Amino acid sequence: MDYKTYIAERLPIEGMSREEIAESIAVPPDTTLGDYALPCFKFAKLLHKSPVLIAQELAAAYPSDGVISEATALNGYLNFKVGRRGLAEETLARIEREGEKYGSSTLGAGKTVCIDYSSVNIAKPFHIGHLSTTVLGGALYRIYRSLGYRVVGINHLGDYGTQFGKLISAYKHWGNRADVQKGGIHAINDLYVRFNNEATEEMETEAREYFRLIESGDKEAVALFDWFKQLTLDYVQQIYAKLHVTFDSYAGESFYIDKMEPVIGELKEKGLLVESRGAQVVDLEPYGMTPFIVLRSDGASLYGTRDLAAAFYRKQTYDFDKCLYVVAYQQNLHFKQLFKVIELMGEPWAKDLVHVAYGMVSLEDGAMSTRQGKVVWLEDVLNRCVEKALSIITEKNPALENKEEVAEKVGVGAVMFGALYNNKIKDIVFSYDKALNFDGETSVYVQYTCARAASVLSKAEIGKATVAEPCAQEYELIKALADFPDTVRAAAEKYEPSVIARYAVDTAQKFNKFYFDCKILQAESEQLKNFRLALTKATLTTLKNALTLLGIGVPEKM
Length: 558
Hints:
Number of strands: 12
CATH class of the domain at 112-363: Alpha Beta
CATH topology of the domain at 112-363: Rossmann fold
Shape: flat
Strand content: 5-15%
Helix content: 40-55%
Largest sheet: 4 strands, parallel
Strand order of the largest sheet: 5-4-9-10
CATH superfamily of the domain at 112-363: HUPs
């Protein structure tokens, strides 16, 4: 239940809307005074009364019901206590009724969100650095879809540039079709690394010519490029399947080559394109930024030009209400420039473009370089985590059935959760040991909690659950469960899946405290046993829903 809105609807304050009142309500630091509090100081000027008097009058007028058990005034604050039994009844009934849909809503009905994420480079490895954009974008995709939005997932492929000329040159000199077909992306990467280590000046010239041939539509060059592209996509699809990530569009940079001219023409018509050192740029110095280069001095476009064309194409094709770019924070300036150029072009939807910036992921042994071949493949990280998970599970529960399947969910989930748990803007150093900690702030801890709840439920059937007055541990858990729908909305508003990840850990901790402090199957009465079983079932449903939004599987047993 959205208690802030519920309270606001019953608080008539002249000159204030329900939404404004709800936004002013907060959870007080000292919850012994109340579960929610409304500071009345901001209403003093509006109502021409002291905050203390306003709080007293509102408390006296607030209608008592089973949802809010008490409204009291103290020092200019209006404090509300939630009715424990009413909260428990409403929350458990709603979770039972909605099941796997609990946390979903129709908030975004009729609205479209485009999400640009993962954006792998053709003929380059899918490495640990691609983890954040892929799992963040995938989580946002699921979160927005659960809120009723039409979501368009876009993989803006890096499939344009001189590196493809280099790859063709390397293939011509050192490769053969059978070996490359068999080796796939690994063979392509080896050729790319070898070119950068061994290429002569003559080969560099040759590479530029091969790229020109691709641009001009040369049959052989395009066929080789398309082959390299397909080998890459075949490979990354296997990774996406492990991460439960899907896309609706794979329109990459090359898709927009024939869509740039109208946008460039509009920039010229509106007098925004000026010459600078032979290049055509949009001057952003008045806005505290360096120029946005549209065409280089040789007339060639840049990836920014293609981003500009892509933004217009997406607006025309999808008519989005928001377009999110899940790209590392190193591109902050680029997106500020891009959005400002579109704003200067007079497009009102420029305000709907959002750069969802994130920090970098690295392993404990440091950074990587594609050109030098020093790269940590994401598949290797996933496989190693699954292997470690299998080893731990075998040690803890050697008789467990389907250990390999469980280890896959645990290991892959641990890698994903490691990139989703912290605020997205933070740099992350991934640790296998920390990610697979059964007692830490990890997906493994949440998954194990789910398995514990499922084990309890497998030992008894839930009878008619008459809700008792919750004890402290039960009440804390019920409050957490009731907060889940608001948590999902907050994650969408902040573009921050970590809100859900942290919620899952916090709720799991509350359940485990309840599990250890309160007898469930040996409760003092049948009524209390059924209530606690219903609470256990509601927790399992909610935690499963939270992990599902993050793209993480939940084993039935661990």
